[in-house]
Amino acid sequence: MKITESMQNGVSQIFLEGRFDANTSGDVEKILHERIEEGTNRFILNLEKVPFVASAGLRVVLVIARKLRQESGGDLRIASLQPNVNKVFQISGLDNFLRIFDSTEKAMDSYNQ
To answer: At CA 56, angle to CA 33 and CA 91, rounded to 5?
Structure first.
């Protein structure tokens, strides 16, 4: 999996490319925890180039979102889901727990409201 980061207006944007599964979820979780420890508490996870999300990937998203909300008043927003990945978020019920946006731009705008 390729992981790219950028920071804009205090929001860490994490772009993933590849499968988000048991083999790659640890890398994503490590990066997110490192940024939280550095003081970042607002994230956008862009999954535009993620064709598959396994339960291990969903667990990382859930753990990080809960940690941010409970410990730092922050949040994790999800952006640009492919249709089959969006279905996984719906079936798991995470679409009711997380704020999911069509684009990174819309997710960024949501932090300014």
So the answer is: 120
Task: Count the domains in the chain.
Answer: 1
pLDDT in tens, 16-55: 999 999 999 999 999 999 999 999 999 999 999 999 999 9
How far apart, in whole angstroms, are the C-alpha atoms of residue 50 and residue 40? 24
H/E stretch holding 91: helix 83-92
Name which of 106, 99, 108 is nearest 10 in CA terms: 108
43: domain CATH number is: 3.30.750.24
Burial label, 60 (beta-carbon count in 10 A; 0-12, 13-18, 19+): buried
| Residue 46 lies in domain | 2-111
CA 73 remoteness from chain centre: 16
pLDDT, average across residues 80-101: 95
Q: Residue 69 carries which side chain, given as an amino acid letter?
A: R
This prediction's pTM: 0.93
